[in-house]
Amino acid sequence: xxxxxxxxxxxxxxxxxxxxxxxxxxxxxxxxxxxxxxxxxxxxxxxxxxxxxxxxxxxxxxxxxxxxxxxxxxxxxxxxxxxxxxxxxxxxxxxxxxxxxxxxxxxxxxxxxxxxxxxxxxxxxxxxxxxxxxxxxxxxxxxxxxxxxxxxxxxxxxxxxxxxxxxxxxxxxxxxxxxxxxxxxxxxxxxxxxxxxxxxxxxxxxxxxxxxxxxxxxxxxxxxxxxxxxxxxxxxxxxxxxxxxxxxxxxxxxxxxxxxxxxxxxxxxxxxxxxxxxxxxxxxxxxxxxxxxxxxxxxxxxxxxxxxxxxxxxxxxxxxxxxxxxxxxxxxxxxxxxxxxxxxxxxxxxxxxxxxxxxxxxxxxxxxxxxxxxxxxxxxxxxxxxxxxxxxxxxxxxxxxxxxxxxxxxxxxxxxxxxxxxxxxxxxxxxxxxxxxxxxxxxxxxxxxxxxxxxxxxxxxxxxxxxxxxxxxxxxxxxxxxxxxxxxxxxxxxxxxxxxxxxxxxxxxxxxxxxxxxxxxxxxxxxxxxxxxxxxxxxxxxxxxxxxxxxxxxxxx
Length: 557
Hints:
By secondary structure, the protein is of the alpha+beta class. 29% of the residues lie in helices and 20% in strands.
């Protein structure tokens, strides 16, 4: 589970909109005037911000000389091993100057932060004004229903960019900083993100993430839009059904009292959803950039609460299983159509693919290789990262494999291919060269076919499932469909990282190319069954799309 700090979604305070309407309700030109005014003010603020940044650097450079003097004075005192009245007086003066310099720099930085907040506020005002008026310029088209994946990414970014509250010495964190609630008379402004209690389609009530549209002082009610279906579902709610979200992060190092405490009951946005659920604080943030770790209420567990890490993995695992099943069914359908020569209107017979398109698709395929997520104590399975397939494993139709074939010039090479079929009677595969699908088919024995990984290995939890530094592997050379011998230069450090490898290349003095990135999906173990395979020979072969200059040792099949 990627636990997020409860109540963290927010937008900076919105300035009052100056949109007016005529008696018939049509928008007047005051919107255009307000837009021009906002643009002009934003340009002024950006200029002022630039000047403040320059002043900060100048102030820092000016104070550096004084800091150096402090350091040198301490070094002299250590050398002489005494603290004389002279050094005491000198250090008192230096530290007084340093304190004044730091306060001056701090004041400039606070002014810069104020400018940034005002710019964000003006930009938000423009967006809300355009939404209310129904008017957009070319760069801000009317919003359509947002794809869920895009929405989740935007919400995550919004949470990460919540500004940190930085007060002056002695200042207390204000309302809506971290765990500090809004004051009793606070009214959220249009555009603010809130938690709203609404009725679901099944009649039950739930807390959802919403955006304020308006507030009526006459009825004491809000109009809010469900963030998940903006413009499609609007709710009119009393004030007690709306909870404003924090506008600043609290700094655990300076304002720990503004944080929710361990085992405190909260409403928290469940990861990858737009709904809030009851949860207990498991671990508060230790640093400003940290999130909360929370335990969501869940009656399927003996103690009534989900584990802080395993619940999300459990839910994610179920989702991944469904995704894998859907992908498998789609792939089976595609392969069946390919074999039968039947395609529907949305899947016409494939023509020879342009090389640039093919390279892009291969890159996307490598990037979307699923990460293996096991239960506590589980070991990574075969075909996870560097773990090879079991001895009796048979690749399925549609699986990508490395295949050892004869090139047009008679030499042998390892190519990226797709399995068409496997015969248990002959123990042979039929595979298609991925570079010329449907034009070149090869019938190969099992030892000439190596299945590629089906899962990424997580370096943080399963480092044993990765190839290690200086290990010899076969790797797909970038922008080709051929595998070459290489040494691991740097294994991945994070799940999303690639390997850095050194391809064998005699055109370099040490016999290896500079480090190149290769995705986890496109590496495999270099075993005894392909001894004698030749290495990459210089840039000419890259230009020639991976034609080998050497030959494989003779081998009987």
